[in-house]
Amino acid sequence: MGWKSDVRRFLMEDLGWGDVTTRAVVPPRRAHAAITAKQRCVVAGLREAAEAFHILGAHPEPFVEEGARVAPRTVVLRITGEAWALLAAERTALNLLMRMSGIATATAAFQARARKVNPTVRVAATRKTAPGLREFDKRAVEIGGGWRHRKGLFDAILIKDNHLRVTALAEALKKAKRTGLSVEVEVETVEQAREAAAFHPDMVLLDNMTPEVARRAYRAVKEASPATVVEVSGGITAATIAKYARSADLISVGALTHSVKAVDFSMDLAPD
Question: Domain span at residue 10?
């Protein structure tokens, strides 16, 4: 199943056996509509919003590109078609556009704060996404200038604290490297960071460290394995991200997706 199938499923969840309000009060006629940003934002989700209308036979026309930074009252999408189709797809389209633009806008803001300190650092998504929406959430992070990171449990190895409660770090890294997959290990102390770096993993994740401890752990990793990417994560906010930026190649922020604040969009419809 691809993203188009997901959009269809979201639409059918809302539509059910039919839009009873529109069926009862709206006569058959053609109409046009405009979706407008009501606040400054980075636009994401236009592709998905357009698909919701397209499924019902309407004709969407984007007025900006994905990733555009727009001002309030900017029209981002126009749609023409049967009035019932525009009304039936409205909420699904807006929900996707609002959530994805919220994620993209937050990502761009985090990225800007971090890069004022370290021009090469990247902000990344985590797996803390809404179930069923991971592809949409991670795409929105990418549109906002961030990195998707791994898709799930299947495409890269990430040895976390709970893994290390049942196996030793050294043994876990030896076994992981035999798989041929990208290997990352989460550490909580400078000593763990130094031990992990000795095995030259692709990435070391500094988890829930203070900025000062993260600086020491970053140096320990780079001294032992300069090519290893250092990721920092754990409760990082817009207010604290700059404090970590010099001690990271990558900063992952769960709040981008688990605590997203939707951007406000509205749709206004008129008869042709």
Answer: 3-106+261-271
